[in-house]
Write a structure and sequence with these properties.
The protein has five helices and 15 strands. By secondary structure, it is α+β, with helices and mostly antiparallel strands. The strands form three sheets. The protein has a five-stranded mixed beta sheet with strand order 1-10-9-2-8, covered by helices on one side. The protein has a five-stranded mixed beta sheet with strand order 4-3-5-6-7. It is globular and about 70 Å long.
Length: 289
Amino acid sequence: MSTIPLAKGFSEKHLQFPVFLSHKIDGVPVRIDIDTNGCFTVRSRQNKPVASVSTLVQDFLDEALEYLDLPCTLIGEVYQLLDPCADFKETSGVVRRQYDQSLLLAIELFEMFTPNLQEVGFERRYEAMLELNDLHWKVSVAPQQRVETPSQLEHHFKDFCNKRPEAEGMVARNWNDPFLPGKRSWGYQKLLREPTIDLWIVGVEEAIDKDGNPKGMAGGLVASYKGTEIGIGPGRLTHAERIELWVHSQTGMFHKRMAQIKYKADDSYDALRQPTFQFWRDDKDTADA
């Protein structure tokens, strides 16, 4: 079960304006729980300890504790300090090391929960988070742009994409969105330049050459999507990975695994148009559909 609130794909009809927009960092989300004594734990989306940012979090809390109403939960994205736009797979490899990597990493906070904030929406929680800004140069609060109408949202998203062509997209939060760890809320949506979806990969299909001969490697994947199975192109799988996947599928070593899938946005499709594999999402245990 996820320890962190989960975003849905974009659906304007489910937004309740005003909405807060922020850029989407393709980092590794972590949950920082601080008890009444100021002691903390850092855990992944799958509730596993994250040792790589221990010193970074401790240094931040040395400055921030007097501003916090304890106990408190902070949630943020861990990214590479010198390369914030690094590929998720690379960043995840650094973050998931079982020893401290604080010199290489930074955290952008996007959620906060304390007893005093139990009944309030996202707007009030964001205001409370702003008190933590500028306390530590490697821990910041994700800047939020308040927009009042769908046309303003569209304008800001297009402007963002033009100015930040390297960015994955943006995140939209309803002003009254509650804190719901482990649940997927329509009040918390992701607006992506190229839409992606995280699905369970449940099978492997063998590649066939132009003469119909099997090639002994994965030619495609099979994903579970809304109660049915759909084919996924190999996309960014390497040649070695495709061979390994096929061998595992034939020897009983293949087990379902979460992956991020990129596709073409097209409402006329019941499934997904031109879906292709991007990378594994072993940090997640809840599919998007």
